[in-house]
Please model this.
Amino acid sequence: MNVSTWSIKNPIPALMLFVLLTFGGLIAFNAMKVQNFPDMDLPTISVTVSLPGASPTQLENDVARKVENSIATLQGLKHIYTKVQDGGATITAEFRLEKPTQEALDDVRSAVARVRADLPGDVRDPIITKMDLAAQPVLAFTVASPRMDDEALSWFVDNDVAKKLLTVPGVGAVNRVGGVDRQVHVALDPLKLQALGATAADVSRQLRLVQTESAGGRTDLGGSEQPVRTLATVQTAQELAGLTLALSDGRHLRLDQVATVTDTIAEPRALALLNGKPVVGFEVARSKGASEVEVGAAVKVALAELREAHPGLEVTEAFNFVQPVQEEYDGSMHLLYEGALLAVVVVWLFLRDWRATFVSAVALPLSVIPAFIGMQWLGFSINVITLLALSLVVG
Model:
């Protein structure tokens, strides 16, 4: 059957079909996510090995080379990149694109497991992850308040801001940048320890048992069975200072008798600067499959609610990757409209026939818009690559 001949003789069914396809294409277009680039799974695996206190030379000889030699035997391997620094080494294995990402992850995990026994005994368990391009930060902010110092601001970001933003659909992670971490310092007095015949190892062994919660089994109480828990926690530095320690010779002493306990902050290991001034900030990363534009709009609404709930809180935008994505989308759509218009103009200039021009002007959107149904069904998103392809096809 000739579809074109049947459609000419029966225009109503053909017209209704294209009306439905156009309607479905518009719905699918609005349902697709606007992204900068599509979410791609690249077969690139990262292995992070931590050995606190080790020098780069030791890590290179005892850790990095052994892991590299084991990974080098894998099939489809393209490149190996190694970064060694104080206390840790990162080995990145890049495979050829045709290798499935999950297979590459399993192969690297097996290769690391083969040499795990040959690594130093105090090495922490290696962390093996695949590259996630969607985990890159899309927004960064700094916070300031006249009512809070750096310690309070850091806790505010870790607790209030993170909890608020992680409830926003599409937000994958909230990471604090700069600020300080709370830490309890126990400064031992060596003269008092020597006078009591105690050592720092005795105190350290006792403190290691603090902040412990574990299951203690079950017991019969009042005719019913109740769970039992073992609690060994302290809430404040003062409680820790009053902790009773048992020495190896059977004697007991209080911690504040041989040490000074202070609730303070840890030595800063990172610094965030805005216009040359130290600040406390945080980065927001989207989850895989989410739209940068939607995440950016929702994050701004959530931050506005935080400002209302905390008067005096100042939130400054330090980095915005959402706006370029929106500008690229608007620019690509503008070029798409220009391409369609120029295609119609070229048809009219060559044919000089209004009927043929009208047919081409109607056929262009009726050909492009229904394609969005297939794109949305196959999981495509509106990004630079798909918009470029549509522009080329329309031209």
